[in-house]
């Protein structure tokens, strides 16, 4: 069975590993990047606490010894379901089974100004770009004697009070407190403001009431200006316009306020559900197709426990991948279709970290909540366990120990590329 | 005394550190990058053995506790010697003493085609670009069924048999041997050719006869095609044209065949000497100026021991910086000018590494030569000592241990930036 998987995120990679060296399967894993990205730690790359390489794992290394998993670095251009074929910017591939695991990208809700001027953080490279921008900001602030411009440079606005927004706000507040005044003694960091804007009435709205309240308390303790019930209308690169009619002058806006599924070309548009996702049945099969599946952030699935659709989280993607691998093995063996299992999400809990010794953890069964130092330890241990590769795990750990002891993130490096990406013709 | 230093390489940084917190001095250190680059290990960044951050050290961290050293990230545009002022792309700075430590850049000898299509490696970012290109090459090779194009993708040409050329050729040969066939099982690496082209009749021509011979032997043992007495005429991105009239088809050319001083605008052009350098006296003072100095790769100085000019090496730059710091202190104290010391280079030896357990070391006094494993240990120990920062030293060491044990360089990651460098107006 020829299985083509599009996307090597938590879902796609897990599926490829489950089918690795399994008889009867030929797997082609396709991604835009040559590495798996550990998304939960993007914010630490952006704030110079971790190296991009620490949270990235070369795909080819995962499958070095594989007999049946092949890898291609290319962009999907179109699916031709009637021909069981996909077209990419480099090659065409035939499939028996196609699995879409293209994930989700930042949603600017159609606002082009916003998309042009604010910084998303949905890839390692985007996290690096935020890091470079932040450092460049303070460098440029030195040459500025206009007070209004200076204040604009010193204001950072984060939009979206979910885990990403909370985590990067907290990390920035700690940089402001511990590092930036030492690095830039000529600047007055009492003028630096970190705004966290959230449309709902609380941060971490998807978590427990206690976690929401605690995260807001922690953020305020670190000096973040948390503005709930605050919607952004527009951003022209100079001022953030709020729905209320007020403005916040800010040269840098980090947009973490929404995601939308990356729907590939060639799929029946009527399947598009809430959040720009593709509607699947409980076998992850796309409605109306018999050999195209969607898993992870791209998939919209309703289950008895989640009648309004599953949350877009890494554990959902990974559990769906595991289920799909099992079901594909049944199909390959031509077992009775009734043997196939239906998906239900086992929620093992959720967590977010705000800063040193500050995190919140919710566990659903038994219903438990932790905050503070203990939650922070759990958060670190779990993330270390989930990172791919012994060496990455060691290097993340060492960076954390170093950062914790020295109150310093010392990766404050601007590696900006010059223009040089010409490949010779025909390559 | 206001000292403005242009460039934070081995020379400029050493000088700033020598003047750090010294009474009577106000130092402004200016660089294009916000970090010091450890040039000797660029080749390991290019071949995915080290992270760019491992060999880069944030300048602001070095001077966090300094009372008198300030840092600016900007580009020098012009020197106005009559006004004791420099103009940059951001600010203007007045000086009592100006020290030019702008180093040297790649010399393509005026050949624009060559400059446009081949890869230089004189900065960390350029080393990263080589890494990205090499990895992308093999990814693209998969989608190619034209045999001629495939061979072109599999040929890598390195021009210049000095330490840089030798070291990167060796590292590439080891990648070909240990890693690439595992990463790309669909490609036939017996077709991959690594050519090292050198115009002179031997590699490492500046070192001892023994080192030259041994390095060539090591390279050949690793499978590098060493072509001495071979001059490059041109390169159009497809084929390397040799002076002999022959061609080598190659999609990738790494150019390590020459450097030239980075001469700033505003300096008397008649001072330009061999290698596009600025002629100085033995106090590093530019001829015809009384307060502009040049040190390191940019300076051309003749001494009794080096009547044809000093070599362009890190130790020369660092020794000149130390001497200049001492002399500036004498000037600041208004001591008798005759007390100032004249520069002479103390050559402590030179070395180059070719691969695992393979290096060559020359020591001039007493005249000694080492090769093989022992030389390789010396090379590693010395480079570890010279790297700035305890954390960088630890991480380089751990990477080396990992690479040595596993025969693997696992930083095979393509972090290519998208276009997003717009700063808001006025910043």
Quick description:
The structure is a homodimer of 427-residue chains. Chain A has helices spanning 10-19, 42-46, 59-62, 112-117, 124-141, 147-154, 163-183, 209-221, 314-332, 372-386, 390-406, and strands spanning 2-6, 26-31, 35-37, 56-58, 69-73, 76-80, 85-88, 92-94, 97-100, 104-106, 155-159, 193-197, 225-227, 232-235, 239-242, 247-249, 252-255, 259-261, 272-273, 277-279, 292-294, 299-300, 350-355, 358-363, 368-371.
Number of strands of chain A: 25
| CATH overall fold name of the largest domain in chain A | FAD/NAD(P)-binding domain
Our count of helices of chain A gives: 11
The total domain count of chain A is: 2
> Could you name the CATH class of the largest domain in chain A?
Alpha Beta
The CATH architecture category of the largest domain in chain A equals 3-Layer(bba) Sandwich
Oligomer kind: homodimer
- In percent terms, what proportion of residues of chain A is strand? 15-25%
Note poorly predicted spans of chain A: 420-427
What is the helix content of chain A? 25-40%
Q: Largest protein interface? A: A-B, 69 and 69 residues
**How far do the termini of chain A sit from each other?**
30 Å
**Which value, in Å, is the CA radius of gyration of chain A?**
22 Å
Strand order of the largest sheet of chain A: 5-2-1-9-21
**How much is the average pLDDT of chain A?**
93
SS content category of chain A: alpha/beta
């Amino acid at each position: 069975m020829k299985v083509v998987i599009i996307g090597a995120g938590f879902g796609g990679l897990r599926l490829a590993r489950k089918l690795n060296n399994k008889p009867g399967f030929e797997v082609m894993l396709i991604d835009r990047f040559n590495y798996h990205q550990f998304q939960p730690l993007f914010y630490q790359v952006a704030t110079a606490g971790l190296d991009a390489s620490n949270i990235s794992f070369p795909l080819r290394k995962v499958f070095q010894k594989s007999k049946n998993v092949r890898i291609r670095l290319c962009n999907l251009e179109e699916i031709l379901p009637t021909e069981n074929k996909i077209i990419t910017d480099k090659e065409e591939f035939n499939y028996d089974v196609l699995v879409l695991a293209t994930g989700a990208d930042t949603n600017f809700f159609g606002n082009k100004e916003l998309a042009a001027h604010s910084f998303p953080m949905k890839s390692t490279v985007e996290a690096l770009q935020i890091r470079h921008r932040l450092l460049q900001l303070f460098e440029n602030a030195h040459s500025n004697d206009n007070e209004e411009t200076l204040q604009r440079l010193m204001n950072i606005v984060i939009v979206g009070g979910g885990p990403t927004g909370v985590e990067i706000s907290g990390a920035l507040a700690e940089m402001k407190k511990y590092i930036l005044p030492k690095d830039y003694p000529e600047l007055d960091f009492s003028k630096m403001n970190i705004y966290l804007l959230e449309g709902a009435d609380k941060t971490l709205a998807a978590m427990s009431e206690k976690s929401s309240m605690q995260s807001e308390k922690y953020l305020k303790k670190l000096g973040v200006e948390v503005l709930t019930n605050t919607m952004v209308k527009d951003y022209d690169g100079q001022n953030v316009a709020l729905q209320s009619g007020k403005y916040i002058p800010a040269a840098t806006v980090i947009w973490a306020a929404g995601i939308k599924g990356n729907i590939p070309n060639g799929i029946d548009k009527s399947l598009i559900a809430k959040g720009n996702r593709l509607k699947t049945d409980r076998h992850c099969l796309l409605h109306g197709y018999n050999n195209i599946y969607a898993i992870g952030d791209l998939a919209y699935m309703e289950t008895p426990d989640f009648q309004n659709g599953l949350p877009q989280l890494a554990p959902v993607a990974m559990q769906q991948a595991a289920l799909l691998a099992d079901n594909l093995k049944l199909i390959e063996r031509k077992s009775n279709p009734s043997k196939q299992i239906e998906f239900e999400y086992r929620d093992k809990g959720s967590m977010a970290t705000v800063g040193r010794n500050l995190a919140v953890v919710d566990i659903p069964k038994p219903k438990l909540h932790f905050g503070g130092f203990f939650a922070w330890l759990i958060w670190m241990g779990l993330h270390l366990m989930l990172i791919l590769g012994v060496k990455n795990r060691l290097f993340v750990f060492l960076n954390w120990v170093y950062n914790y002891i020295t109150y310093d993130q010392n990766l404050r490096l601007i590696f900006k590329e010059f223009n040089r990406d010409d490949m010779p013709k025909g390559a």
